[in-house]
Specification:
- By secondary structure, this protein is of the alpha/beta class.
- The protein has helices spanning about 40-45, 50-55, 80-95, 105-110, 115-135, 165-180, 205-225, 250-260, 270-275, 280-290, 320-330, 350-380, 380-390, 395-400, 410-420, 430-440; strands spanning about 15, 25, 35, 40, 45-50, 100-105, 140-145, 185-190, 195, 230-235, 245, 265-270, 295-300, 340.
- The chain is built from 16 helices and 14 strands.
C-alpha cells in the first residue's frame, strides 16, 4: 500500500519504558513482548481499539454537539473522508501497538440512499481495510452491524413490529457477516441497541422476544452457510436507549439463550459500564458468564457512579480491573475474544494526542491488573480461603448434597438425630479486603 502522510506526525511508536518512566507517551506496565506462561503479554490481553469511539466520536453529549474536530475529517466527499479516516486509524493502531480493532458497518463506510449503495460503499472500505491489515498486521477482533442509529430502527430491528424492518435488518447483518468473514474477524457481536420497549401499551413482549430468537437463529444458519468460524457474542446492556432492554444483563441473556435453544452458539461480550448500569459489578458479570462457560470477550471501559448513563470512560481503576482479571484468568482467559476499548475521550479532550494518552492509560491499568491477578492466583490465599469455606461440601453428607444423593427426609433425620444446631462461622470480609490491599498497595 502506498505510504500516506502521517496524521500523527508528532507521535512516535509507543514503547514500554517501565514503571519509573516520566514519559507520558510510553507504557509503564504493558510490555507487549514480555513472555508470561508461554505467551506474550500482547497475546494474553489482546487489546483492541473501538473504531466508533476513537475515530467517529465527536465529543457530543445529550446537551450539546461535538467538540472534537479531526483534520482528516475535512472535505465534501464522504467516501474520500472515510478512506482518509481509515488511514489515520491504522496509523494510530500501529503506533499504539494494538493487535486488533473493532467496528460497526456504518463506522467505516457511509450509509447510502439504498441498501445496495450502502453495500457498495462498504465493499470499497473493506478493500481499503484489507490493504491496511496486510501492511500493519493489525487484525479484526470483531465486526457488527449498526441496527440502532437510523430512523428505521426507532422501534428496534429484530424486535420491530414491522416485518419489513426485520427483513432490512437481516439483510444488513448478512452483509456485516460477509464483511467480518472477508476481513478475518475472529468474532461477531450482537448488541440489541433498541431491542426493548418503552411501554407495554403498544408492545407484545412475548412475540418480540420470539422474533429476536428467530433473527439470531437465522444468523447462526447463515454463518454456517458461508463457513464463518468466528464466535458469536451477545453484549448485554440495560436501560439505554430503551427503558426495558431484552438484553439487560448476563443472567437474563443466559435465560434467553437457553429458552430459545441458542446457548451452543453464543458467548457474552461484557462491558464494564453496562454491568454497573444493571446494578452489578464488572466482576459479577464476568463470574456469571464464566460459571456457565459463556465468557467470550470484554468491552473495556467504565461508567461514572454519579451519572446514570453510559459514559464509556477509559478505566484506570486498578482495584476493579484486578478483581476482573482474577475472574478472567480463573476462567481460562478470553479465547478468541479480547479487551476492546469501547471508551471515548471526554468532551474537552480535543487534541489528537489525547487518543494516545487515553489508550496508554487503559492498557497500562489492565496490564498492571493482569500482573497483580497472577500474583494473587499464584499465592493461593484467596483460593485457599474459599476451599476451606466450602470444605463441608467435599465430604460426608455435604458431598451427598452436592451430588444430589440425599433429599429433605434424609437431611431432616440427620439434623434431628446427629447434627443439631449449626455453629455460624465468620465470612471474614474485612480480612479479605485488607488482604487484597496488600497486593494493590504492598
Amino acid at each position: 500500500m502506498k505510504k500516506a502522510k502521517s496524521h500523527f506526525p508528532r507521535i512516535k511508536s509507543i514503547a514500554y519504558e517501565g514503571p519509573g518512566t516520566k514519559n507520558p507517551l510510553a507504557f509503564r506496565h504493558y510490555n507487549a513482548d514480555e513472555v508470561v506462561d508461554g505467551k506474550t503479554m500482547a497475546a494474553h490481553l489482546r487489546f483492541s481499539v473501538a473504531y466508533w469511539h476513537a475515530f467517529r466520536g465527536t465529543g457530543a453529549d445529550p446537551f450539546g454537539p461535538g467538540t472534537i474536530q479531526r483534520p482528516w475529517e475535512k472535505g465534501t466527499d464522504a467516501m474520500s473522508i472515510a478512506k482518509t479516516r481509515m488511514d489515520a486509524a491504522f496509523e494510530f493502531f500501529q503506533k499504539l501497538g494494538v493487535p486488533f480493532y473493532c467496528f460497526h458497518d456504518r463506522d467505516i463506510a457511509p450509509e447510502g440512499r439504498t441498501l445496495a449503495e450502502s453495500n457498495r460503499n462498504l465493499d470499497q472500505l473493506v478493500a481499503h481495510a484489507k490493504g491496511h491489515q496486510k501492511a500493519t498486521g493489525v487484525k479484526l477482533l470483531w465486526g457488527t452491524a449498526n441496527l440502532f442509529s437510523n430512523r428505521r430502527y426507532m422501534c428496534g430491528a429484530a424486535t420491530n413490529p414491522d416485518a419489513h424492518v426485520f427483513a432490512y435488518a437481516a439483510a444488513q447483518v448478512k452483509k456485516a457477516l460477509d464483511v467480518t468473514q472477508a476481513l478475518g474477524g475472529q468474532n461477531y457481536v450482537f448488541w440489541g441497541g433498541r431491542e426493548g420497549y418503552e411501554t407495554l401499551l403498544n408492545t407484545n413482549l412475548k412475540r418480540e422476544q420470539a422474533h429476536l430468537a428467530a433473527f439470531l437463529h437465522m444468523a447462526v444458519d447463515y454463518a454456517k452457510s458461508i463457513g464463518f468460524k468466528g464466535q458469536f457474542l451477545i453484549e448485554p446492556k440495560p436501560k439505554e436507549p430503551t427503558k426495558h432492554q431484552y438484553d439487560f444483563d448476563v443472567a437474563s441473556g443466559i435465560a434467553f439463550l437457553r429458552t430459545h435453544g441458542l446457548e451452543p452458539h453464543f458467548k457474552f461480550n461484557i462491558e464494564t459500564n453496562h454491568a454497573t448500569l444493571a446494578g452489578h459489578s464488572f466482576q459479577h458479570e464476568i463470574e456469571t458468564a464464566a460459571a456457565h462457560g459463556l465468557l467470550g470477550s470484554i468491552d473495556a471501559n467504565a461508567g461514572d457512579e454519579l451519572l446514570g448513563w453510559d459514559t464509556d470512560q477509559f478505566n484506570t481503576n486498578v482495584k476493579e480491573l484486578t478483581l476482573a482479571m482474577v475472574s478472567i484468568l480463573r476462567a481460562g482467559g478470553l479465547g478468541s475474544g479480547g479487551l476492546n476499548f469501547d471508551a471515548k475521550l471526554r468532551r474537552p479532550s480535543i487534541d489528537p494526542e489525547d487518543l494516545f494518552h487515553a489508550h496508554i492509560g487503559g492498557m497500562d491499568a489492565y496490564a498492571l491488573a493482569f500482573k497483580l491477578a497472577r500474583r494473587i492466583l499464584a499465592d493461593g490465599q484467596f483460593a485457599g480461603f474459599l476451599k476451606e469455606r466450602y470444605a463441608s461440601y467435599d465430604t460426608g453428607f455435604g458431598r451427598d448434597i452436592a451430588k444430589r444423593r440425599v433429599g429433605f427426609r434424609e437431611l431432616n433425620r440427620l439434623v434431628l438425630t446427629k447434627l443439631g444446631e449449626p455453629t455460624p462461622r465468620s465470612g471474614k470480609q474485612e480480612y479479605l479486603e485488607n488482604l487484597l490491599n496488600t497486593y494493590l498497595h504492598g
